[in-house]
Design a protein that fits this description.
8 helices, DUF5996 family protein, single chain, DUF5996, alpha+beta, 6-stranded antiparallel sheet, 12 strands, globular
Length: about 300
């Protein structure tokens, strides 16, 4: 890959330059994600709540509602939110310059005009930077079009790579999906066996970790991790997991434990082949977890 193409596909994403925008969009996406949570039929492991990378941004995908379906999409090329229904109705909300409260009110007004009624718990979920209810949050209003488009273009590349790796596994696995509560793009493989839950697990974790899994993901960083990173985790953590080698060389097992491996995005984008570096990382964690966790790899992997 040429340096120009590599920079286009895996551009820099310095958190210091777009953190206010990142946090505002995180809250925007929680509002839309909670609408999907409120209306989409339940699926295992909370797969019914997630969003997806699309050809223009991030979308709910089709949501069933009474005698129609509708879809909500963040168009991160034209920087608008689009609500479409199967009854040929549409509402468009510009994203630039809106506070969280303005966005919340505009979205629910548009849904009402389209004949869609939904109730959500209108407060942020697990966001240390904000506990303000959506309806009264006038503080978060940053929207940098350049960085939102950059973020989406990175997600496009990573989503495609995750889809490629998903094709190596024929066991139970999740879609490639965007979890709005922690703003991470995720793919999860399952061994097919149930898993013990840690003491004190809440309702969310009881469902998410009900079965043995190896999860892969990408997130843009936060108040603690000050740069984007890839992660992979094995649950439950089998004995000897962190003795297994990781690839590429820059990957490492988290010193905080929990069966978590990390590969920083900036190390990937500086590598000679970012796509291969991501695939190698995912496969090295899978091989480590499957080996130490005694997964039945003969029945779970495609053999060519």
């Amino acid at each position: 890959m040429s340096n120009a193409n590599q920079e286009e596909q895996f551009p820099a994403l310095p958190i210091e330059e777009w953190e206010d925008t990142m946090n505002t969009f995180h809250l925007f996406s929680q509002i839309i994600g909670k609408i999907r949570l409120g209306l989409y039929p339940k699926r295992n492991h909370w797969w019914h709540i997630t969003l997806y990378v699309s050809t223009r941004g991030i979308t709910t995908g089709p949501i069933p509602y009474e005698d129609m379906i509708f879809e909500i999409e963040f168009d991160l090329i034209d920087h608008v939110l689009i609500i479409n229904t199967s009854k040929d109705s549409e509402r468009i909300i510009p994203l630039m310059g809106l506070s969280v409260s303005q966005f919340y009110n505009k979205v629910f007004s548009a849904l009402s005009e389209l004949g869609i009624t939904v109730k959500i718990r209108a407060v942020p979920y697990d966001t240390p930077f904000s506990t303000e209810p959506f309806e009264t949050d006038d503080q978060h209003s940053s929207y940098d079009e350049k960085y939102m488009n950059t973020y989406w273009r990175i997600l496009v590349q990573i989503s495609s790579i995750f889809q490629t790796y998903r094709g190596t596994f024929r066991g139970k696995c999740s879609p490639v999906q965007y979890f709005w509560h922690h703003k991470d793009l995720s793919l999860i493989f399952y061994s097919g066996r149930t898993a013990p839950l840690w003491e004190g697990a809440n309702m969310v974790n009881r469902e998410a970790y009900s079965h043995e899994l190896i999860a892969f993901g990408f997130w843009a960083g936060d108040e603690n991790v000050r740069e984007p990173a890839f992660y992979a985790s094995v649950y439950p953590e089998p004995e000897g997991l962190t003795d297994e080698p990781l690839s590429p060389e820059k990957a490492f097992w988290s010193p905080e434990g929990g069966g978590m491996a990390l590969l920083m995005y900036n190390d990937v984008r500086r590598s000679s082949d970012p796509k291969q570096a991501i695939l190698d990382f995912m496969d090295s964690v899978y091989q480590a977890g499957a080996k130490r966790g005694n997964w039945d790899v003969n029945s779970l992997e495609f053999k060519i």
